[in-house]
Design brief:
With about 140 residues, the chain is an all-alpha fold. The protein is built from five helices and no strands.
């Protein structure tokens, strides 16, 4: 079984082609991100909705991460690397996608609670746990 280093030194195009695919896929993902955020901002300016702002802020970072994950996945699958390596890479990238999706949903929930919780009559101000502990004397 050949090592990855030997495979790549045999023919430099084995490294260049996946790199080109990675860059092209990432640029497409970045362009789609710009279009989505532009549409969300336009919708938010027309409706003056806080929900649109919360979603736009929560999506701005993860979409770029998702574009990088997708670009890396497509580049790995298009390479001549051993199937076991590309399958392990795909599983790792899927786990990273799940983590980033979870973090985005947590951010949407946090910002929604902060905004809509402050509008409820008689509700206590939303604060961090550390600030709440300081107020209570902990």
């Amino acid at each position: 079984m050949q090592t990855i280093g030997r495979m790549l030194t045999r023919n430099p195009m084995e490294l260049v082609w996946p790199l080109v695919i990675f860059v092209a896929t990432f640029i497409v993902g970045w362009t789609i991100r710009r279009l989505i955020l532009k549409a969300l901002r336009a919708w938010n300016s027309r409706t003056a909705s806080r929900a649109g702002l919360v979603i736009a802020e929560a999506l701005s970072g993860p979409i770029l991460i998702w574009a990088a994950i997708l670009a890396l996945h497509v580049a790995l699958q298009s390479s001549d690397l051993p199937r076991a390596f590309t399958n392990a890479g795909a599983a790792t990238l899927f786990a990273l996608w799940i983590v980033s999706l979870t973090m985005m949903c947590m951010r949407i929930a946090r910002d929604s609670i902060r905004f809509y919780g402050s509008q409820v009559a008689g509700a206590l101000p939303v604060a961090t746990l550390r600030r709440t502990w300081r107020r209570s004397g902990w």
